[in-house]
MoaA/NifB/PqqE/SkfB family radical SAM enzyme
Amino acid sequence: MKALSIHLTDVCNSKCTFCIVDSPHIKQDSIMRRRVSRFLNENAGQDYEAVNLHGGEATIRKDFLDILDEIRDLGYPTVFLQTNARKLARMDYARTVVEKGVSLFVVSMHGATAETQDGISLAKGSFDQAVQGIRNVVELGATVRTNSVVCKDNFAELPEIVDLCLDLGADMVNISALHTDGTALRNFWEVTPRYDEIQPYVLEACARAVRRDARLLMEGFPYCAVPGYEKYLVDWEDNKFKVLYRTFVMEDYEDHMDDFTRVKDDRCGGCVFNDVCGGVYKEYAERIGWDEFHPVTELPVTASTTAV
């Protein structure tokens, strides 16, 4: 897929303890509408299949619905929205967003219970709102993909989070490794688990999705950390995103991530996945190191649906 991706706002109605954008500590938004409009106009008519909107929380912009109208008027085929779904808990609002062209909702689900998710978001009621938002969007016939970021506070619930998301009607579940930047960097030791600690739970969550014939996607994990489930890691060769992030344009999101956010160790050169694996987030490597990572020397057998 060839898509545009736009960071619409720095601010959010939640204050997640691992927010990569650092929204909990941002007092004033830096995103100007004219910059967003210029980016959309400059790239219109260039065969982009979708516009992906994210933040912060994109839906809290006062002109969010107007931006959806602008995207439609410029001829972009569809819109993807990354959201905490809190405002979508209102059916009238959810219906308006769908009618204005959003066909895929990527909803953050970081807990299987209100206690966990509200504790991560530091926003009481956010779990119940997200659940209702998903139900509303599914009822309206749009596609829902959930995204769960693995952190210290939720990794033991990952299998239950997958079950919940699928029970709510998600078309795909995405499990993301924690990107140790922004608020996650501020709170590094409080939110960042070791890969060897989370691995059994990540693999069990993947097994549950596969057993239920669900669509599964993983993002940000080094290949050696998810043995048997490597084929579910996002293929950035097939997904080309041109990103507007604040004042900076990334011509290719994956190239930017490889160049600036992730690193590899000498041992990675002996891994059969070296050419496709992005490595480990640099802050993780600097603080925790490489002892738990081992090169894969033979192509593995695809994981079965047997529980890990």
About this structure: The chain has one domain: 2-287. The two ends are 32 Å apart (CA to CA). The first strand starts at residue 2 and ends at 7.
